[in-house]
Amino acid sequence: FSGVTREIEYRRMGACEECGGTGIPPNADVKTCPACHGRGYRHVMRSTLLGSFTQVAECPDCKGTGKITDERCSACNGKGRVVSDEKIEVEIPAGADNGNYRLIRGMGNAGINGGPSGDLAVYVKAIPHEKFTRRGADLYYNLSISFSTAALGGSVEVPTIEGETAKVKIPSGTQFGTSFRLKRKGMSYLDGGRGDMIVTAYIQTPRKLSKEEKKLFEKLREFDGDHHDERAHEGFFERIKELLE
Predict the structure, then answer these.
(1) Run of H or E residues at 211
(2) Closest CA to 14 of 88, 105, 118
(3) What is the pTM of this model?
(4) C-alpha–C-alpha distance, residues 224 and 15, integer Å
(5) Given a cut of 80, is residue 205 above it in pLDDT?
(6) Domain boundaries in the chain?
(7) Does domain 128-205 have CATH number 2.60.260.20?
(8) So what's the pLDDT on residue 60?
(9) What is the pLDDT of residues 21-66, one digit of tens each?
(10) In this structure, are residues 3 and 92 in contact, taking their beta carbons and an 8 Å threshold?
(11) How far from 242 is each of 130, 210, 235, 236, 245, CA to CA, in Å?
């Protein structure tokens, strides 16, 4: 919601510090490659059915470095790269979701022959919230309300993603599955602003009834039986409300 900074550990192929990523010891006897004359590339003639073409290719003798030597760096065995364990801090912006990623420049594998390092892509995996379900920038929350609140209406407090509470006005006669939208109470967008919070009402059916509650529901059943045909179009909670009044 508000963004976070996380320390991550990972393993990459880093440049060898002994040779600077070249694979050649600092004091080695280095000579100019006679095959490419120090250019690191060759012009290769290729013949095809359409004619002959000249192609520029990396020199295989010096592997593009333009230099040759029989000596190899003992630290990396001439490869120029070694396994390196890294630890860095990554800032995750507010509103990041599953599949989003941060690209950390220059923190990927080291390049060949002392070339520049690649980038590190850090993908976000969001842990599901125990109370809210996320869909884009909107948050969904299931609110349990009593029969009496659904029938008579009222005001109910619900938790928000900030750790605070917000009030939801429940109108009388609220039906099972009715949703209420709280503007700008959802997740942050990556480019600013916020989504909404959708609160869906679920009515609690009591498992055990007190004597008073049982009498009330029996009275409602009798009331429905006497007026079934003429009031069939009315909702259940409208009839409870009238009975309680």
Answers:
(1) helix 211-226
(2) 118
(3) 0.70
(4) 82
(5) no
(6) 4-30+69-123, 128-205, 209-245
(7) yes
(8) 87
(9) 888 888 888 899 998 988 888 888 877 777 778 888 888 888 788 8
(10) yes
(11) 38, 21, 11, 10, 5
